[in-house]
Amino acid sequence: MIKKLKHLLIGTPLADSELGNEKFNIFWGIPVFASDAISSVSYAGEEILLVLIPVLGMLSYRFFLPIVAAIIGLLVILIFCYRQTIAAYPQGGGAYIVAHENLGQTPGLVAGGALIIGYVLTVAVSACAGAAAITSAFPQLLKYKALLAFAIISLLTWGNLRGLRESSVMFGVPTYIFILTMITLIVTGLIKYALGLYTPEQQVVAVQQAEDTLMFVMLRAFASGCTALTGVEAVSNGVPNFKEPTVKNAKTVLYAMAGFVALVFFGVSALINLYQIQPNSEATAVSQLAGAVFGRGSAMFFVVQIMTVIILALAANTAYAGMPLLTALMAKDGFLPRRLVTRGARLNFSNGILFLFASSSILVFAFNGDQHLLLPLYASGVFISFLLNQYGMVVHWIREKGNGWKIKAIINGFGTVVTGITLVVIVIVKFLSGAWVTLICIIALVYMMRKIRKHYVTVAEDLRIESTQKAKEVIRNVASGKVILPIQSLNRSFLKTLNCALGCGFTEVEIYHISDNKERAEALKASIGELGLNAVFHYDITPYRNMNEVLLKHVEEEADKLGPNRSLVIMMGMLVVTKQLEKPLHNQTTQRLMKELETYQNVSVFTVPYLI
Q: Chain-centre distance of CA 264, in angstroms?
């Protein structure tokens, strides 16, 4: 029943051979990886004005467009820098891989931690901003803003659990519709203004007493507007998700993203400037602009609001495409729980998707669905990853000294200086507003990842056996009965389980292995053969990564062969750790198998503890 419901909700399992079909071409790659940056037009300009207007009043519009232009200039610099990252690191990983390989473990973990926090905030901020677009059109829903944001996150999680290709089709087309909608808004608004069909109302703005210098106010506004750049790294992180030629396709998507962001961001900002839109708590700047251009309550007004909600949902979807891949890379290196490496039934990193869902949902409810409270936490972490990526690339080019390495190093060196200065500005002006929270979270993440890595290294060392010791550690006396010993790898925990089985007097000993790779299975078979056991080694290859299902089916078949009056014994090793925080890192698969096997009448299950 549960399996049928799962297949209904997220689809039937896909084989490993279908992974190539689950990757993106350029057309679908743009909405998946560029939507985060494109969606920034719905709140980046508003964030700038929220800093300027309370201090400068109507004078704010004199400085608004120059700040927007500076941010777009920074975007262009980042695009030139990240195109080099894509070419040098087609395996993906972005700032984490670049910093880890070129700057060392700690900078790599800082970059990875900053990216993880950035992805979680991307989902939370985008969902909250999408909810704000809904409440701008329907103010009566304002008190349900957090629930609306949670609904958006839930929908995205469901779509991504169904698989890469389905999520790109499901969420892809609306990105292009949003771009066309924004272009229509910009063109119509400019024509209407040029023909004198709209005159901004004379507004009186209450100006606060200025405690900061004009330059500091400009820097604060610039730092707030830098949220427009938070999706730039997504393409370099997700290069492996593109179809061949991956590098060329990823670069094309990067250029397209820059073009769309520059066009829509500057166009909408120019209209906000001409129409002198003032953001408020009840209506976003874009909704006010749509009301001024098309008329509030008109069909196009609601189209703009609906497409804004969708593009913000797609921005969150960028994180779903990038973060699970990043956490899988870091888990493969031993810095995060190993379960994050495993692809789910639909060839996605489902555990990473569920982690992103849980953490972003917690943020939404913790901040009551208010994106303005979340945004100060946002840019600092992103620019930390920008800085480490650029500096790491400089070191990379100096080490490699390939064709044109000097020019490439200069480009990334310039990117290092620019992103470094921007990061300093953001941390200084946003520190008390929330940047300190992000910095503490990054430090905590780095500490946690170091501890996880240290634990895995300790476990591996404890389980490792020398080839000369294998035969010495195996008991030879056997007597009666049958036992199946599931094996993942030949280590000390398995040898203890094997000796326990042999010491219990079983005449039939079957060592059973499940893999998605025949070469690895044959290599393990050869290692077991070196022990000289009177035991059968059997393995099954599954392209669906459904190891538990295959094992249960095998146990059921073997139990049926024994008849109703005989019992089959399953012995599995279980790692014992003394620290509570280490327990979630181990034995999850074993515990689930034990739960499943409880329902088998003629099957007995034993676990053999191995103390780490």
A: 25
| Residue type (1 letter), 493 | S
- The answer to whether the CB of 261 falls within 8 A of the CB of 106 is no
Q: Backbone phi, then psi, for 244, in 5-degree steps?
A: -70, 145
Q: Per residue in 378-403, pLDDT tens?
A: 778 888 999 999 999 999 999 988 88
The secondary structure of residue 488, as a DSSP letter, is: S
* Whether residues 478 and 365 fall in one domain: no
Q: Residue 314 pLDDT more than 60?
A: yes
pLDDT number for residue 267? 93
- Supply the pLDDT for residue 99: 93
Domain of 554 in residue numbering reads as 467-611
> Three-class SS of residue 512?
strand
Whether 397 and 496 map to the same domain: the answer is no
Spell out the SS3 assignment of 182-234.
Answer: HHHHHHHHHHHHHCCCCCCCCCCCCCCCCCCCHHHHHHHHHHHHHHHHCCCCH
| Three-class DSSP labels, 240-252 | HHECCCHHHHHHH
Please indicate, yes or no, whether residues 511 and 399 belong to a single structural domain of this protein. Answer: no
pTM strictly above 0.85: no
Same domain membership, residue 214 and residue 107:
yes
Q: Is residue 437 one of the residues assigned to a domain? A: yes
pLDDT value of position 420: 92
**404 and 496, same domain (yes or no):** no
pLDDT at 47 over 60: yes
- If one counts the domains in the chain, the total is 2
Answer yes or no: is 460 within a domain. no
Q: Note whether 381 and 479 are same-domain residues.
A: no
| Pair (364, 506) in one structural domain | no
- Identify whether 521 is part of a domain: yes
Do residues 338 and 449 lie in contact, with contact meaning Cβ atoms separated by under 8 Å?
no
- Domain membership of residue 509 (yes or no) is yes
Least confident of 267-271, 474-478, 521-525, 542-546: 474-478
Q: What is the largest CA-CA distance in the chain?
A: 98
Residue 208 has pLDDT above 80, yes or no: no
Residue pair 597/570 in contact by the 8 Å Cβ criterion: yes
Q: Are 66 and 237 in contact (CB under 8 A)?
A: no
Tell whether 439 and 485 lie within a shared domain. Answer: no
End-to-end CA distance of the chain: 38
Determine how many CB atoms are found less than 10 A away from the CB of residue 16: 14
CATH code of the domain covering residue 493: 3.40.50
Please check whether residue 283 is in contact with residue 136, taking contact to mean a CB–CB distance below 8 angstroms: yes
- DSSP codes, 274-338: HHT----SSS-HHHHHHIIIIITTSHHHHHHHHHHHHHHHHHHHHHHHHHHHHHHHHHHTTSS-G
Amino acid at 514: I
CB atoms within 10 A of CB 398: 15
Q: Would you say 316 and 37 are in contact if contact means Cβ atoms under 8 Å apart?
A: no
